[in-house]
Specification:
The chain is α+β, with helices and mostly antiparallel strands and 73 residues long. Helices cover 29% and strands 16% of the residues. The protein contains 1 helix and 3 strands, in the order βββα. β1 and β2 form a beta hairpin. The protein starts with 8 loop residues before the first strand and ends in an 18-residue tail after the last helix.
């Protein structure tokens, strides 16, 4: 079993819920009432996405590097 390190971004939506997205795996997103719920749900989505790609013999994009930048405007 291979372990993948996947970056997830969580943003607060206008309705107060939390949206988790995965920049590396396009189409992977989940929303929840709490950050914890959104993270739990997206973990399942990411796992299904990777399993599906492996089943179909498709490559898995792997992150090389991620950073958080501070931009002054």
């Amino acid at each position: 079993m291979k372990v993948y390190n996947i970056t997830v971004v969580v943003e607060k939506a206008l309705d107060g819920s939390f949206l988790a997205t995965c920049p590396t795996l396009q189409g992977c997103y989940a929303d929840g009432e709490t950050v914890e719920e959104a993270l739990e749900l997206i973990a399942g989505v990411i796992k299904m996405h990777i399993e599906d790609r492996l089943t179909n013999g498709e490559p898995i994009s792997e992150e090389i590097y991620s950073a958080q930048l501070k931009i002054a405007v």
